[in-house]
Write a structure and sequence with these properties.
mainly alpha; Arc Repressor Mutant, subunit A; 2 domains; 66% helix
Length: 150
């Protein structure tokens, strides 16, 4: 395929742009931005809490972004931090009851969006799509770590 790079790149950008719009619309109900979605969902999946380092790894964000996002969500009573040391390092972030409610609503909306976006795909096509995306993602992570082949 001659224009493979362009097709791949533009498709990914279009998906990301649409996803951020959908997530942003839903998160606005909580006074948050679409970028908070990944944090809420990660914390929902981890009832024992996640450290800042865990959030960096799971969400693919740097410490500064995690810190900013956790501050905003803390100010909105969606999360709490337990077990932090006096200098505010360490500890884990947990969803409050209000945070769990918001995260479950967002999870429901995300499921609706994903189902609508892939609704016309067969189960076989959907499985192939996700397997392919996982493989591309892993390959790109490896290239980002190790650099392009010579």
């Amino acid at each position: 395929m001659k224009d493979r790079f362009e097709k791949f790149t533009f498709a990914i950008f279009d998906i990301e742009k649409s996803w951020h719009k959908i997530a942003g619309d839903e998160m606005a109900k909580y006074g948050l931005k679409g970028s908070h979605t990944v944090y809420l969902l990660a914390l929902l999946k981890s009832p024992k809490g996640l450290s800042a380092q865990n959030l960096c790894e799971i969400c693919g964000k740097d410490k500064a972004d995690v810190s900013r996002m956790m501050k905003i969500m803390s100010d909105k009573n969606l999360i709490i931090k337990e077990g932090s040391h006096r200098n505010n390092y360490g500890g884990v972030y947990l969803l409050t009851d209000e945070g769990k409610k918001a995260a479950k609503m967002v999870q429901k909306k995300v499921s609706i969006a994903v189902e609508a976006a892939s609704g016309n795909l067969s189960d076989e096509s959907r499985t192939l799509l996700y397997d392919t995306l996982d493989q591309i993602s892993e390959n790109l992570k490896k290239l980002a770590r190790e650099g392009l082949p010579k």
